[in-house]
Amino acid sequence: MGRTSRALAVFGLLVAVATAQRPAAERSSAKRPPDAPLPEVVVASGVDGPALGDLGLGVGGVAGEGALRWDGADVVTAGGVRVACRTAGVKLDFPSGRELLLAPDGHLHLRSGESGGPFVGGCELRLADGCFVRVALSPGAEVRVRDVVVGDATRRLQPWRRGSPNAEVVREAGFCGARLLCLGDGGDVYRAIALGPLVTLDRVLVPSERAAATPTERLVVLADPIVESLHVMQRQHREAKAEVREAMRAIGALAQQADAILPPGAALQRAERDRLRWLLRGGFAIEYEATGPLAPRLQLFAGDSPLPMVEWTLRADSAAFLTNPVDDLSGKRWHGNGTRLARAAVTLQARADLYEQGIALAVVERLRK
Question: What percent of the chain stands above pLDDT 70?
Answer without folding.
Answer: 89
